[in-house]
Specification:
single chain, alpha/beta, Rossmann fold, Helicase, Ruva Protein, domain 3, seven-stranded mixed β-sheet, 32% helix, elongated, binds S-adenosylmethionine
Length: 280
Amino acid sequence: MPANGSSHPARKHPKPNPSGVHFLAAPRIADELVRSAAITEADLVVDFGAGHGAITAPLARTGAEILAVERDPEFVRKLRTRLSDARNVRVIPADARTFSLPRKKFAVVASIPYAVSTALMRRLLSPTASALDRAALIVEWGFAKRLSATSPRDLETAWWAARFELRLVRRIPARHFSPAPKVDSAHLTVHRRGKPDKLTDRALWTLLQAAHRTPHAPARTAVAFLGRKPHRLLKANGIDPERAAAAVPPPDWAALARQLAADRSLHWPPLPRALREDRR
Ligand SMILES: C[S@@+](CC[C@H](N)C(=O)[O-])C[C@H]1O[C@@H](n2cnc3c(N)ncnc32)[C@H](O)[C@@H]1O
């Protein structure tokens, strides 16, 4: 075993790796990842792209029920051998993009393959029916920066950030993976902000859509359609009416949506199907 404590020695020079498989070669980072998700015996946890079990093994030690999802049959075989004593781990040969997500509350702790990051986050964070409670993820650095930005750059990210707290915990240098990828990664945590009712979700989506239709226009123009006094409405909710609509933090739009949803004289269009259920 190499000095870094991994069974997969880190290479000095990145080799071409078209499959995008980068094994975590730092057990300390895997432990931190698991700890940051506060996993207990009561949890159901999915590890997407389990590989050789760098994250599955410390997850197994928490006593939680673990679903280790892996697409590569060779890795599945090795992982089953490695974790044959762990009765709380089920190794599932499946594609993360089509695997049936649990219907009961679950957490995700995983180093997700870069190539499927967006598709997977969309499945986990977009549908109101998603039972995801929290996640601790290793993702590509740029992706983590984009997701955790105070002002999301697009409507989809704003929807995610309004309903989940997306926090960049720290940068993880490429040297901690084997083979080392070209770019650094990040430890990103995800926590559900609460379970809003259906009307609040509909009001939120309508507000975010309006804000991102003309992202640079002042927030007051985004709420003009409501036919209320935009200045007063926004100020009462701690939103600067002159601030660019897309720069208003999504949780502020969510607070406004909660208030507006309580007003039964207002009507909100239904959510698109992709925001109600998982469309694999
Ligand atoms: C970045 S590696 C992480 C491996 C391991 N979790 C670790 O941290 O060392 C990504 C893993 O995801 C697997 N993978 C790639 N695409 C996948 C997909 N669509 N569904 C499931 N697993 C996938 C790869 O085979 C690989 O094992």
